Every structure is written in structure tokens, then in C-alpha cells.
Records
---
Amino acid sequence: MASRRGKIGFVGLGVMGAPMARRLLERGHTLIVHDRDPDAVRRLTRRGAIAARSPREVADAARVVFASLPTPDSVRAVAIGADGIARGRTVKTFVDLGTTGSRVEDEVARRLAKAGIATVAAPISGGAAGAAKAALAVMA
């Protein structure tokens, strides 16, 4: 089922990201997904998500891109790396769901702003159990 709300991008389909992405699909959103683990991507494409080959490809397709990544270095690479979100043609908002830390978050926000992309630091709490139950707290 295609969404009238537009496409949403999601990068990082691990313990926390996969359940959040699944919930978006269940609510009828069109979801463009990427993860370095092809099996994680396949699990969501079987549910209707559209696979992207890179973070940039996600950002070429969606105005809003969520990232649920495990480390500050992975956030940096996905957001501003060679094939990252900053190079996307469509993205306007990048939402970092991780606990990235202010130093990297500021660096990413500055670099994305130069590309015309707003950044929202929105770490989540509730752990894997909260993600599975759709009971996470988001602090933006």
C-alpha cells in the first residue's frame, strides 16, 4: 500500500532500528531502507520496504531520513561520508536516533546544514524490549 504521506528513509536496521522501521511500514508509510547487513534489508523488503544500496540512495528518495546507528563514527559515515545523506538530492531532514554525543552531532549538523539539510538529534530510550513493544521515549 503506497502512502500519501510521502516516502520516509531509514538507515540502520539493527536491534533498535528494525522494530521502528517495521512499525512505520505497519502504519502504511512508504519506507526506503538501507543497512550494511543485506539480511536486515531483506527482512523489511519482504514486508514492503524498498531497498536502497547506500545512505545517499535513501536520501535521493526521501525528504526525511531516520538513522538508528550504534556509534558516533557510524553516524558520521552515514550522514557526511562519501556516499552519505549529505549527497542526497531529496532529503531535507536527518533525524539521528542514536546517542551520538554533542561533538559529532554538531559536526554532522554543520555539514548537513551546508547541504540544506536540517538535523534533529532525537536519542531514544527503552532498549530492545521497548522497541519491540513500540514503547520508546524519544528526546528531541
Note: The chain has a mean pLDDT of 93.
---
Amino acid sequence: MEERSQDYYHLRKSRRFWGQIPQDLLSEKEVTGLIAELRFLTEMLIPEVGPAEAIKRWHGPFGSRHDFEWPGSSVEVKATTSSRGRIFHINGIDQLDPPENGKLFVFGVRLREEGGAELTLPGIIESCYNLLSSDEDSLDRLESALVQIGYSPLHNEEYERSRFRIIEEALFEVKDDFPRISARNFVEELHAGIERVDYEINLNGFDKLIQ
């Protein structure tokens, strides 16, 4: 079964991806971010709700505010290779605002690049194909998401050179004491000339928020 799934992965890959306009290589930050999102998909969601439902909850590639969304919960996925620990980059003052009706969680993944490690971007993408291989609609959504992100297998040889070891994975609930910036932190509205506010958070001392 596994061999057939892998053959099917390569067949679909040639059909969907080889015909697209060549994409630039994803940056290291984009690669680790995508790996982290796929880890949440394969290790957290699929075992809990099944492949078809899990892939429907992946909204980040299609422009949603949070990476994974479903009624009652949203999950923002963050990756870091920082030697200082759980240091994560936040994109904008509203990224850690909870959904209108529900809770927000942050799934943080700490990675370390090592030449002898097993985890690669092409490898985890192939694992996703194998998990979703029984459902055509789920595979189509996976491929659409990868195209939106800018992934192309034309660069797999390059991506295979970056190999990662997972140091830690943890799911944090964003509560009142979670370190974040939101619009309510500002007494006055941001100046009209300020378009974006990015910042970093340090979750090293927030084990109490791990689910």
C-alpha cells in the first residue's frame, strides 16, 4: 500500500506541478514555516479528525488570518530555529487576536538544521500525500495550498539539502497572560503612516499555557 501511495504521489506531482510557471525557491523561513504547518496537520489534526476534515481546516495558504480555522478554534503555527529557545516572529498586531467566537492557540515548533537529520520538506509533503491518498478532493486541496504557498517540486533537490531535527513541539493557548501586542495596547490609534507592526515573542517561561 505504501509503495502504491508513493507512486501515486509522483504521478500527481508530475501532472499538477510540472506544468506550473517555475517558482523561486522558498526562503529558509518559508521552508521551516511550511514544515511546521504540515507537522500540525499530520501529527495533531489528522489523528484527531481524519484526513478529509483536517485538510479542510488548513486556511492559511488561502489568505485567512490564522493558519488553521474551524468553528470554536483557530491555530496559528510558528516555527523557529533560534538557539535561544521558543522565540517566534509575529506578523502584525492582529495575528494573535482570537477568533470572534472561539479560542486561539499557537502551535510552536523548534527546529535545528542538521546534516544527519531525517526531516525534509519534500519528505513531509510526500507523507501528506500518503495520508490523503484515498480522497481526491483532499489531495486537490493539498496541492492548491502548496501552489498558493509557492512550493514547486522542481526545487526538491535543493530542499533535500536542508534537513531538520525537531527539538520541541508544543500547543499554547492564547490567554490574557500570553505575551502579545494587540490594538488595545495602544492608547491612541496607530499613525496613518504606519502600515505594519511585526514583533517577536519569547515563550520560554510559559509552560503553564501548554495544552
Note: The mean pLDDT is 89.
---
Amino acid sequence: MEEKEEREENKVIKINDHKKQKIIPHISVKKFLLGIGILLICSIMIIWATCTTKTIKISGNSHYTDKEVEQAVKKNGYIDNSVAYLIKSRIFQPKLLPFIESFQVELEKPDIIRIHVKERKRAGCLAYNGKYVYFDKNGYALESYEKKYGDVPLVTGLQFKKLVMQEKIPVKKQEIFTYILELTMSIDKYNLPVQEIYIKDDGNALLMSGNLTIDLYDKENIDIKIPELSGILKKLKGKSGTINMRYFDEYQKITIFKPKKVEKNK
């Protein structure tokens, strides 16, 4: 008798439990996805309506002007919406200018973006057809300007018949460009007043600083020769002649200065 009553009691659904089952909402996957989709569309519409870019600020550039960078931005997949362009730049970065290695977009205000660019070093420049042709460490001629950048040495002495933009400068020993970049970076690092790098037939370099010629003799010990030149050039400021570094190494820092002979009027 007791067992029968227990079985019947188990079949009874308590009123409170039944109420709890009723108040649990059931949302289908389709409705959930539809809600997310509507929310996303509304967000995009609000962003598109309120984040139109009115001002582009440029920073980090040393050779390119703000105007040159801004024009390059607008010609390469630009979106006139600050948030949209920020997202796009994080996913895909177009190539802006030959010597811009990368750039980063920052949102200052809904209608203002800042583009911080990182320029890569120009190895040097050549005087060609009345203009200055700038090349990279791999020897590619990438830019041609009438203006000469003060911190990029003029490279002379290279032998080639024809120069084509966006192609390698056709010299016999292509590794010479890595050497030129090393010199350029060292000259820039120690702020040396070197205006010209002359490459001799044997591939070694002469540096021209005003009326002084520095003969590095070979490619060895560049990392200690260039820093030493800073003090030497200050001592010889205003003089003319040749500084010979043939016997200069880490053990004996010997430089020989040979003044230029002044011709007497007969």
C-alpha cells in the first residue's frame, strides 16, 4: 500500500516546479543571430555617420613632407572614415612610398586620425640626368628628385651605362650597395660632415668632407674608423688635404694627414 502511494506521488508535478518551467524563456538560434545582425548593422551605420575623417595628421616622417604622405595615403585604398580606415590598415597595409617601411594609424578623435610613418634609410643618391636618384641597400633606384637631402651622401665613381627607375643599378659588384649603406648609416650616426662618397675602382671608398678627402683604404674596421673621424675632422676644420687611414686598426689608431700643396703664383 505504501509503495503504491509513493509511485503515485512521484507522478505528481508540483505547482512551483511547473511555474519555474514556464518562466524559462526559449530563444531560437535564428532569432539570436538575427538580433546580433541587427545590432551589428546599427553599429556600422552609426560609425559611418559619425566618424567621417576631416583631418589627417602625419608624424614620424623625416624626408617626405606631410603633403606627400597624405597624398600617397589617399591614392592607396583610402577610406574616408576614421574607424573603417583604422581597421583596414590593421588587416592590410598598402605600400605608400618607396622609402616608407611601415605606418600605423591612430584614432585621435572620431573625425581625426594620425598616421605615424617609419621611413627606411636611403643608402645614397646618384646625380643622373640633372636629378638626384635615391637608392636602397639592394641597389634599387627608387626615387628621382631635383632636391638633395642633406643627410644622404652623393655617391660617385660607380660605373654603369644606363639607369632605370625601380630596377637595380647595373654595376658589376652588387654587394657594393650594402657597403655604401653601412657607410651612410655610420656617417649619419656620428653626424659627420661628409657630402660625398667616392667609390674607387677597387671597391673601396673615399669620403669627401669640405676640402678634406678621407681615404678609408679598405672595408675593414669601419666600425672604429668612422667614430674616430669625428674628432679628426674637428681638428682639421678649415684645412685642405688627404686623411689616410691605411694603418688604422683596433691596435694602432694611426692616421696620416697630407696637406694639399698650395700653388704659388709665378
Note: Residues 29-50 form the longest helix (22 residues).
---
Amino acid sequence: EPADRVTKALVRQVLDDPARRILASVAARGESALDCLRVVELAIERFGPPLRFLSDNGVALNPTRRGYQGLLTRRLQALGVHTIASSPSKPTTCGKTERLHQTWEQWQRAQPEPETLQDLQRLADLFQDLYNNRPHQQLPGRCTPLQAWTATPQAPPPRPNSRAMAPTSNT
């Protein structure tokens, strides 16, 4: 079996809440903090840092309730981003993201099985383009997430927090 063959992988996505636009998608071999940081850094590289960032309480995303600050949280707070963790046992807090995951999984099952991580990334990129450019039933006038994104005034960038700890390469 080829070394780059995918046996277990997932796709991490960053979703803009009001516009429902996928800002970045990254195929990864697991659920590591580095993979989470990678997809968020990609979204920041493309669109700048958000004012707020909502995530679930997964160890790779936001382990604050477990008593420590994770890699992603430290990075975002250093940029001045207000990080928010969903409430325990309240899946509706991240409902839009959960719905996105369902749509992705349903769409992916209808596609040819990816053989490599690069194949999975190509599928994720295609899905992102399709998702962002199709009318969304929850958006005004059934506009697309891309149309909603471009129609929304850009928020001012967050102010970096010099007291927040920047990520280290060994965390």
C-alpha cells in the first residue's frame, strides 16, 4: 500500500457564522491542535483575523474547560481575537457548523473514495466552492454564502494582545 494512501482522515473547516461561508478547508490525518491551527491560519491568511472565534470544547480546538489554554486559543488571543467555547452539552451553539459537517459528509459519500490526502483536499476544495456558491435557504433572498459575505461590511481587525502568549513550535 502506498505511503500517502489515506486510511483515516478528516477535513477541518472554518465557517463564517453570519454569511455561512466556508473560509478554509484542510484535509488532515487526525484531530491534532496543529491541524486546527493550520486551517485557522489559512483562513486568517486569506481574510484576516476575525473579531471573535467560536469553537466546540474539543481538546484540539479549545481545552480551556480542561484547565489549560490550547495552541489555537493562545494564537488567536495573541492576535486580539475573542475566543468563545460552546457550552457543554449544548450542541445548538455550534449548530451551523454541525449542519455544515452533515452536508459535507453526505456530499462526500456520493463522491469517489479519495485514495490520498491530496485527493481528499481536492474534494474539500471542490465542496467549498460548491457550498459557497449555492443559494442557502437560511440566508435573505436565498442568496449564496459568497453573496452574503461580500454584502456584509468588513469588521475592523482585532487589536493584537501583547500580553497573550504566541504559540510555540513544540506545543
Note: The chain has five helices and four strands.
